[in-house]
Write a structure and sequence with these properties.
The chain is an all-alpha fold. It has 2 domains: 1-45; 50-104. It contains 3 helices and no strands. It has helices spanning 3-13, 16-42, 51-100.
Length: 104
């Protein structure tokens, strides 16, 4: 089974509870590390900082992350489309060759 087919089957069989559990587990692991890095970087207690200003900056970053991901996915989808067209072209060549040559 190819990776694409495996991924599709996985997405079809994973339950909502499994998604929730995996998501919360990943969040807890990443949030703790992120907190520690942020505390080391900024120093002091979080309540001593202008968190609204920092949050505004994070929202701006998030916007650019989203836009960058959209561009990356569009590029990947175009590349996949080109590969699928090439596979189709090559299959037609093979089919044409097999129609004219007797394969033992």
């Amino acid at each position: 089974m190819g990776l694409g087919r495996w991924c599709h089957e996985f997405m079809e069989t994973i339950t909502s509870d499994q998604i929730k559990h995996n998501s919360l587990t990943a969040f807890l692991e990443q949030a703790s590390d992120k907190w520690d890095r942020g505390e080391a970087e900024h120093g002091g207690k979080i309540t001593d900082r202008d968190c609204l200003l920092e949050l505004e900056q994070e929202v701006i970053d998030a916007w650019f992350y989203v836009r960058g991901e959209r561009i990356r996915r569009a590029d990947r989808e175009q590349y996949i489309h080109e590969l699928e067209a090439e596979v189709h072209r090559l299959k037609q060549l093979v089919d044409g060759y097999e129609a004219h040559v007797a394969i033992p």
